[in-house]
Dynein, axonemal, intermediate chain 2b (Anguilla anguilla), 582 residues
Amino acid sequence: MEIVYVYTKKRSEFGRQCNFSDRPAELHVDILPDPSLAANFIERDPCDVPLQCAQEMSEHEVNTERYESESRGINHVEGGWPKDVNPQEMEQTIRFRKKVEKDENYVNTIMQLGSHMEHCIKQNNAIDIYQEYFEDSEEMEDCEEQPWAKTINVFRDPNEIKRTATGLSWHPDGSRKLAVAYSSLEFQRAAADMSLDSYIWDTESPNKPEMTVKPVSPLICLEYNPKDSHVLVGGCYNGQIAYWDTRKGSQAVETSTIEHSHRDPVYKVIWLQSKTGTDVFSASTDGQVLWWDIRKLSEPTERLVLDPSKKGNLDNALGAISLEFEPTMPTKFMVGTEQGLVVSCNRKAKTPAEKIVCTYSGHHGPIYALQRNPFFPKNFLTVADWTARIWSEDIKESSIMWTKYHMAFLTDGCWSPVRPSVFFTVKMDGTLDVWDFLFKQNDPTLSLKVCDEALFSLRVQDNGRFLGCGSQLGTATLLEISPGLCTLQRNEKALATAMFERETKREKILEARHREMRLKERSRSEQSKEEEGKEAHGEENAEELIAQAEKEFFSIVEGELKKKEKEEEKYEEKDVCEEKDG
């Protein structure tokens, strides 16, 4: 039997061994002094020469050129067939197999191998080498371990003009791929030759992106489809929505029409839980939330204007900058606005006015991050201005927990997918903070300086072990955090529940107290107004009494004067009569 091996590529074509050898030093250039050049110099007389006793030192830095590595593979095809047998033809292969099986050597070889194979199978049946002996025992929490985080890889924007990494999205089937959206958020300052591309990176190969995503306008957000890992949807700076299929190349499969798209940049796009897996909704600072079906992006399937007066007036709408959708609550969603308000909405309401349920206020600036706790959906996290706040759906006046006011502006944040009490925030000074409110409330459990420039985006992988941070200069940093921060601790859910309930109860008591105080103030102000009215009425009465008294006084005086005049006249008449008699 003739055996032929077919190679699709020669070994010499895809890699060559490096051979190094020792050799002595070589002199390439020897420049001798030129006495004629001395005429160009002027002697300095007198000459001051400072002397220092310490030895003079010099510092030199050398940085080697970055070596770009490239992964190459080889595909093995089915071989071992004679030249006259085509492996694609079923009949020929069956005929050849029957011919070989009749060969005596084949039968003897199978008989020899059979006993060894039977022995191995019996061994496997006797001992399970993959048996877990301690699967029932709980993992003890290591109290002594200090929390830590380390940089695994750094992915830099390959273009000369650096752009901000505004959005990150992990591949749904593991932590091997990270999609990064790049755009310049500085209004009208983008260079004319600035690249529009965004990239998908392989986390193990930082030198070159695995795939380029080519949009019509710079992407601000980019999201993998959790049901189909080949499909991504992105929101553009010009307000359009587009989607890509990695199997079909770098160009967008379909893009929404400009006249039916947003009028401002699309800051957030989220995939909805649906049977088809093709529904998304988007939010923009133009004050609209739009629902789309990526199979038909010519126009949105539904539209909501975030007008707090519930009149649907786009001129009064609040600009949306963050979105939150929890699959376990398919009818509810939340929107974070530029004005610092969180708007809670109900998609299945009958009228547009009823879709806006309520608002939560407590921030002084745009809400850059908004996310429900994966374990307790009634509690949600907001990141804005200089603080991160945790809210309860039941209390609208104020948050139940909040961080201290930081010196640097907070730009993004998210919950840990595996621990209910842990959340992450990033700041403008390039710092990543990891908070565990069961361990510390006033300060972060771990604070790490990731880079010198501002961090703008943050995304945690589903296993909670890896997280990506995007910076202002387009650097995406992949970090690994300590096992203690990504392993569910004993009784953690019960402790977190107790903490949330206690803080909610406390805020409810404070809210009732404030309401009572406001009512007292209102009643006090009303009483004071009544008293003022009475006093004013009393003042009017007093003036009338004084005027009446004055009138009576002057009338009495006039009466007395008239009486006196009459008496004087009587006396004069009496005197005249006496004189006549005399």
